[in-house]
Specification:
The protein has helices spanning 2-5, 14-31, 33-36, 39-43, 56-74, 83-98, 104-110, 123-136, 144-148. The protein is built from nine helices and no strands.
Length: 149
């Protein structure tokens, strides 16, 4: 009956996934008791790293994430990864950077060849793992190949 109404189904794009994931992160970090009481966030200087609030810093993070996703789309290799994994991986790296867990040098030199970034002993990984599990129902370990990409 969809044909009678002339509706067209459009598969979600990376931009749609990104907007949804960023919205979910903002809700999680501001409202989830686990996040609000997490020791990692109490140890960083700016714990409220969000993407979609009406501030310049938030908008800059939003643009940064979207630009990285746009760049990833230009590489044909990105087609072998699930769109949700690409978005979650970019979020993981950017949030880790903005929360002081990673520096640019370590991202550039170590992420591709090292799985230490997903070590559950790191408090940031514990926080991001909970976000993924609560919001989307998947584990951070599933992101390793995409993060390394």
């Amino acid at each position: 009956h969809i044909q009678c109404l002339k509706w067209e189904l459009i598969a979600p794009t990376l931009n749609m996934w990104a907007n949804w994931y960023m919205s979910q992160w903002d809700i999680y970090i501001q409202q989830c008791p686990f996040a609000l009481n997490h020791p990692f966030l109490h140890s960083v200087t700016d714990p409220l790293v969000v993407f979609k609030s009406p501030t310049e810093k938030s908008y800059a993070r939003y643009r940064e994430l979207m630009q990285i996703i746009d760049i990833a789309l230009l590489d044909v290799v990105s087609l072998q990864y699930q769109p949700r994994a690409i978005v979650a991986s970019v979020m993981y790296v950017l949030l880790g950077y903005h929360l002081g867990q990673f520096c640019k040098d370590s991202i550039a030199s170590e992420v591709e060849n090292n799985s230490q970034f997903l070590n559950e002993r790191y408090a940031f990984n514990d926080l991001f793992s909970d976000f993924l599990a609560q919001s989307f129902g998947f584990q951070i370990a599933e992101l390793l190949p995409t993060i390394q990409y």
